[in-house]
Structures are given as C-alpha cells and as structure tokens.
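Subgroup meeting minutes
Present: P.N., E.W., G.H.
Scribe: E.W.

1. P.N. recapped why we're keeping a running log of single-chain structure predictions: easier to compare across weeks, and new members can see raw inputs and outputs side by side.
2. G.H. added today's entry (373 aa).
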Amino acid sequence: MKKRDARRLLFVWGIHTFFAFSALLAQNATLAVQGVLKNADGATVPNGGNYTLTFKLWDAETGGNTVWMETKTNVSIIGGLYDVVLGDGAVVLSAPFDRPYFLGVSIGNGSGEEFIPRPRLTSAPYALSLLGTSNIFPSAGSVGVNTLNPHSSAILEMQSTTRGLLTPRMNKAGRDAIASPAAGLLIYQTDNTPGFYYYTGSAWKSVNEFAAAAPLEIGDTHAGGIIFYLEPSGVNGLVVASVTSGYDAVNFSWGCPGTAIPAARGTAVGSGEANTYSIIENCSVAPAADRAEDPVQNNYSDWFLPSRDELLLMHRNLHLAGLGGFGADAYYWSSTENDANTAYSLQFTSDPAVMPQAVNKSTIGRVRMIRKF
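Output recorded in log:
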C-alpha cells in the first residue's frame, strides 16, 4: 500500500474525547481515538496487531505547531478499525486543553506524511455538561485553577498573583429572597451597609462582626440585654432582658390548659423563638408568651419566651453568678410545652443542680424574655 494512497483513504470517523483535565480531577488525562484504515481501492487493510501509528496534537488544522505526540506500536486492526487510548502509557497527555486542537495521524514513527484532513478535537460528554446547569464534577479529588497540584486538603485551590475570587453580588432584597439558604452561604451585599454576609442557619450576619474590638463574654450587656449564651464563634448568641424591663415581678399563667401544641415542644437552645410563635398562633389566651413577644425594649421588638434549655442556661450562667437580677426562688416560665396540660418552669434557686419541671399551665410564674443576636 502506498503512503499517499493511504493518506487519502484513512477515515478517522470517531474521535471520542474521554479526557479529564489533571488540574481539575487530579488524574492523568486520556484521549480515546477510533479510526478506519483502508487501501486505495477502498478495501480495509488486512487484520493484524503489528501496525505502528503516530498521533500528534496540532494547534492548527494545517501547518501550525506540534503540541504533543505519542507513537503506538502493535496497534490491532480488525475490519479496518483501530481503537487506541492516548496518554494511558509512559507518554502523559500533558497538553493544556485551553484552546482548539487538531489530531494528526501517520503510519510509522512520525516521520511520514500525515493523513488529511486533521480532525478537530470535540467535547467529551463531561465537558459538555459544564455548559448546562446544576453541574457536578464527577470526582472525589481536588479541583485546581491555575495549578496542576491542588492541595489534598482543599476541595478547590486557586492560584493567581493578579486576580481574585469574585463572590455573588446582590442587594439586600435579593439576599433575603434566596430560598432555604444553607448555613455558611456567603454573598457580597451591595446596599444597606455593604459588605460580606454569611448565613448562620437562622439569620444573615455580617462578617464585620468578627472585627469587634473586644470579644464578647457571658454577662456582658449587649444587643439590648445581658448575654447568657454564646455560639462557638463568640459573635452570636442570646441575651435576656434586664430586670429594669419591669416584667420580672409580674406573674402570668402559661395559658391554654387542655390544648396540645406539639409545635411548642422544642427543648434545645435555639427553639424558644419557634415555640413562642407556635403558642401565640395556636392559643387564644397565652399570657406568658404574649408578654414576652409584645414589648419593645432597648429598641428591639424581636423578644420571645426561652425554651426549657435556654431557661436553664439563664439560671446557670447568670443567676448562679449573681447576674441578671432574677427573683430569689422565683419560678420562671419556659416556652416548652410538656403535654396538653403542662409546660416547663424553673425555680431560680442557689442550687446548681436544679432542673426545669413540668407544671400545670394555669400555674402562675414570672416571665423574662430573650432575643438572639
């Protein structure tokens, strides 16, 4: 078979690029290539496993520069069809896939003429998926941008000395319209005190809060009350209204004896607000919850009745330390229902082991509202 005849009659009929960028998927890139080899008379070449083919990546369809090459020996041809995977051996497919490439194929060790035309590499299925929506990289490895070796401890590593990372930018209305934001979600807000904001799991907070001049502590006067609980960040937490609110000496019933409010049975820290709103929505007469939720104190109106565990922290972190001005041996209501007829109350004694008890909802107790910051 003459080389020039072969040039005209080699048909690279399927180039399937199952390659994966090493910078993205932390693995060697490979390129699967299939083609048909025929004689000048149109008949396929004889079957065999001793063909030598050389493959080159060019930066142009004609002329241009060779970017990468690999010679495959003992290539099997059956019915004129060959099927090889480039880059799966000693020669790493190291071309930067950031531009169009054209595949050159020749018989022998690469010194002979190439078959024409050079086909252009097209997208692999995974590469095409990047043009769609809700894309997920099919890998458990690290992703690198401008680096071939992203750190193993990072899901994503980016390197640059001239450019930065641009996060989503939106106004406050757009931020608040995000449906079910995940805890830790970060955006840049463009109005109403512009800056970076993150979602705590229950509220949007400015990262500027981390720049407070002095760290917050239990017992500090802050955000309209006295801090009795701090989150691990030391930035967010819960405060209780001071005794000067005038409500501490007033007694109220919990309300709605005989009416079950399952949505008001949250006990954990962080559930007091939801409990309170559930009581108000489902109980026509709820003196304790109404009293905690109604007032405006120190310019804040988002007060609520503490949950069982929040009430316990108020006792342990403030009352036992002589803070907060709680009544000696006085009973305080929580927002946590026990059953249709009882809810949890706690006597503020000097005993550090005292625990909330379920008492009849008609029992009289004191109210000390709290809020989150």
